[in-house]
Amino acid sequence: MSDTPPEDLKVFDKRHWVNPEARAEDGKDEADLRRIPSYVGKLEEQMAQNDAKLKEYIAAYKEKMAENDQFRARLEKDIDRRVETKLAEFFRNLMPGLNHLEMAIGSARQTKDVDRLIEGVAMIKSGFSRIFGEYGLTEIDCLGKPFNPAQAEAMQMADVDEKEKDNTVMAIAQAGYMMGDVLIQPAKVIVGRHKG
Questions:
Q1: Which of 12, 39, 108, 123 could connect to 117 by a Cys-Cys bridge, CB 3.0–4.6 Å?
Q2: Could you tell me the CA-to-CA distances from 112 to 72, 104, 107 in Å, in that order?
Q3: CATH match for 138-196 among 1.20.140.10, 2.30.22.10, 2.40.30.10, 3.30.420.40
Q4: What is the pLDDT of residue 17?
């Protein structure tokens, strides 16, 4: 048996898109030949509707993004304005201390009275401490306590005789400050070291 079909066997494909000339000979007009099957037409219509919806969604998304950008810009301006207002309030509160320092310098030049100068400067420091306290700034209390490198810097080591005072803050060279849990300035301290 051979794989070649017999010569007298002929196949006719009557589908209109396969052989449009034969269809035209059957009396069908050109418009009928271009007719799309109804299922394909429904799919094309659905695709057009989906494209329109997609364009609507994209336009709505772009509009929302523009609104978000405008809101973000307004929020940043509002935050900047609030920070500026708080800074102005802070500096306004510092001005009396600065004025008192100027008066203390002027008074010291005229009178040469060191005791009054020390008293005036101590009052000014007290005023600054009060203002800083109103803003949440607190002085680090580390004198006589174990050295904490997260809050203080060891400037010098001092020999101590008692073992309990080993690694203890013996003196504060410069005060340290915290604002809540945030370290603003570490304390500069002298730490005890046992000579064991």
A1: 108
A2: 58, 11, 8
A3: 2.30.22.10
A4: 60
